[in-house]
């Protein structure tokens, strides 16, 4: 899967991923009306609204981008019905040949991690059938419970050619509270980055590892250090757009080959039509506004990489 991600990034020339983090507030009224007319103002109606919203965004952007990153929390909000919208979104993205990064941030004791890994990335035996659960291509995981919580994910990735993005330095304002604490004179996130590179060395693609890292766009200096510490690690970079990250902040997250990072934007793309810059599209054409926001993001990052050369 890491080879597919790299080759799709090269083909689209777009090291970006569209975050599918829908809330009902983002879904324009005409879509909500349609969904509620069919299913009522119920969890089913809400889930239908999220799905219709996602579908239009995927249709408007899939030929510009290599990947999508649905955030599972947004679907869990609506219970089982929301999870069905999550699965429908994954299947639709797959039908458009997009790489799917499930932002699930799992990690637990070994036996529980194994269950998560099988459910999201692997296959489960049911009688004589071997079936896939969610079947994302990559999943985000939280490594802060240690190696025995991560190893089951790596095992399933090796069996299925799937990949991981492991939280190393997160984009949120209080990420430093624990992650920046010094241990043996170095911040905890550096120790975790080193461990990610070590895990990754056991499962390599052609040029990058199947075990990637999450490093927030909001900490560019730390991103620069981590890039050097994990040269073969693909970095998923959240924090662009709505959290303040810009192309110019991100040049050191990439390697000399122009690869090595993929930048996520969720609200900045899916809710673009609500922003002054894209208001001219109107709520009816929200997906066109998202397409334009993708084009602008690609050109921001491309421009920053070119001027850094
Ligand atoms: O450090 C992290 C890890 C994950 N995220 C996730 O990325 C998106 C960001 O959404 P925006 O709307 O582009 O801010 C969201 O799903 C987060 O859960 C992160 O932001 N930071």
UniProtKB/TrEMBL annotation:
<comment type="similarity">
    <text>Belongs to the OMP decarboxylase family. Type 2 subfamily.</text>
</comment>
<dbReference type="InterPro" id="IPR013785">
    <property type="entry name" value="Aldolase_TIM"/>
</dbReference>
<dbReference type="InterPro" id="IPR001754">
    <property type="entry name" value="OMPdeCOase_dom"/>
</dbReference>
<keyword id="KW-0210">Decarboxylase</keyword>
<feature type="active site" description="Proton donor">
    <location>
        <position position="105"/>
    </location>
</feature>
<dbReference type="GO" id="GO:0006207">
    <property type="term" value="P:'de novo' pyrimidine nucleobase biosynthetic process"/>
</dbReference>
<dbReference type="Pfam" id="PF00215">
    <property type="entry name" value="OMPdecase"/>
</dbReference>
<feature type="domain" description="Orotidine 5'-phosphate decarboxylase">
    <location>
        <begin position="15"/>
        <end position="281"/>
    </location>
</feature>
<dbReference type="InterPro" id="IPR011995">
    <property type="entry name" value="OMPdecase_type-2"/>
</dbReference>
<keyword id="KW-0456">Lyase</keyword>
<dbReference type="InterPro" id="IPR011060">
    <property type="entry name" value="RibuloseP-bd_barrel"/>
</dbReference>
<protein>
    <recommendedName>
        <fullName>Orotidine 5'-phosphate decarboxylase</fullName>
        <ecNumber>4.1.1.23</ecNumber>
    </recommendedName>
</protein>
<dbReference type="GO" id="GO:0004590">
    <property type="term" value="F:orotidine-5'-phosphate decarboxylase activity"/>
</dbReference>
<comment type="pathway">
    <text>Pyrimidine metabolism; UMP biosynthesis via de novo pathway; UMP from orotate: step 2/2.</text>
</comment>
<dbReference type="GO" id="GO:0044205">
    <property type="term" value="P:'de novo' UMP biosynthetic process"/>
</dbReference>
<keyword id="KW-0665">Pyrimidine biosynthesis</keyword>
């Amino acid at each position: 899967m890491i080879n597919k991600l790299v080759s799709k990034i090269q083909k689209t020339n777009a090291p970006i991923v569209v975050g599918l983090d829908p809330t009902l507030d983002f879904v324009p009224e005409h879509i909500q009306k349609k969904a509620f007319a069919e299913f009522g103002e119920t969890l089913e109606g809400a889930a239908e609204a999220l799905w219709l919203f996602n579908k239009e965004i995927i249709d408007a952007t899939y030929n510009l981008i290599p990947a999508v990153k649905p955030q599972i929390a947004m679907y869990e909000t609506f219970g089982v019905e929301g999870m069905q919208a999550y699965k429908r979104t994954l299947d639709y993205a797959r039908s458009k040949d997009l790489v799917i990064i499930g932002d699930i941030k799992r990690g637990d004791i070994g036996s529980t991690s194994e269950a998560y890994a099988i459910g999201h990335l692997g296959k489960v035996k049911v009688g004589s059938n071997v079936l896939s659960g969610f079947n994302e291509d990559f999943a985000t995981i939280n490594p802060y419970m240690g190696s025995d919580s991560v190893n089951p994910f790596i095992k399933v990735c090796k069996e299925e050619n799937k990949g991981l993005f492991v939280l190393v330095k997160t984009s949120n304002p209080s990420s430093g509270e624990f992650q920046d604490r010094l241990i043996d004179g170095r911040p905890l996130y550096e120790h975790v980055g080193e461990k990610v590179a070590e895990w990754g060395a056991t499962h390599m693609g052609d040029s990058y590892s199947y075990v990637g890292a999450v490093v927030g766009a909001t900490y560019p200096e730390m991103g620069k250090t981590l890039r050097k510490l994990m040269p073969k690690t693909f970095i998923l970079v959240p924090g662009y757009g709505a959290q303040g990250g810009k192309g110019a902040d991100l040049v050191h997250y990439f390697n000399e080959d122009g690869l090595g990072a993929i930048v996520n934007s969720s609200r900045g793309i899916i809710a673009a039509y609500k922003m002054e810059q894209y208001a001219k599209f109107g709520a009816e054409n929200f997906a066109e506004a998202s397409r334009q926001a993708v084009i602008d993001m690609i050109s921001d990052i491309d421009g920053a990489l070119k001027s850094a050369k």
